[in-house]
Write a structure and sequence with these properties.
Blueprint: H1 2-57, H2 64-80, H3 83-160
Helix pairs in contact: 1-2, 1-3
């Protein structure tokens, strides 16, 4: 009985730890998503400002359209070589995917722990019922023993007299 209580306490604390870990992982996922969104907005804003700055500088004696096309081509080439941005994006995507996998794993662990807790509770209830039945049986045996002892005493008395 004591073992089951210990096991139940262990499972309860493990469930609580799993719940806290799931909450922490969800918060980390949200934090990483915000960082990624902020990073993407920052890069976009920087590129947009660069475009505006280059357009505002002037044409350097060429037609405005040719100058804009040239600047846009430079930006396009610079943007095509954005391996750092792609690496950062891939890293965040991997982290988010890993967090989703861990979250799903923790959900499954929590569901299993809840099932184990229910199973242990059923076992505890059955053992308590069995214990009560054995206590009652023990009391009955004690009463019978007392009656048998009393009957033997009475017979001895009668035989000795």
């Amino acid at each position: 009985m004591e073992y089951i209580k210990k096991e139940n306490a262990i499972l309860t604390s493990a469930k609580k730890a799993d719940d806290e870990k799931m909450e922490w992982m969800a918060n980390e996922r949200d934090h990483d998503r915000e960082n990624f969104d902020n990073f993407a907005k920052k890069v976009f804003t920087e590129k947009w400002e660069e475009i505006l700055e280059k357009v505002e500088k002037g044409c350097d004696g060429k037609s405005y359209l040719e100058n804009v096309e040239k600047k846009l081509e430079e930006l396009r080439n610079a943007f095509d070589d954005r391996s750092a941005f792609d690496e950062m994006e891939a890293k965040y995507k991997e982290q988010i995917e890993a967090l989703h996998e861990n979250l799903e794993s923790e959900r499954q662990n929590t569901a299993n722990t809840a099932g184990d807790n229910s199973e242990m509770k059923c076992k505890m209830d059955m053992l308590e019922e069995e214990l009560e039945a054995l206590k009652k049986e023990n009391e009955d045996v004690k009463k019978k023993k007392k009656l048998t002892t009393l009957s033997c005493s009475t017979l001895r008395y009668l035989l000795s007299s």
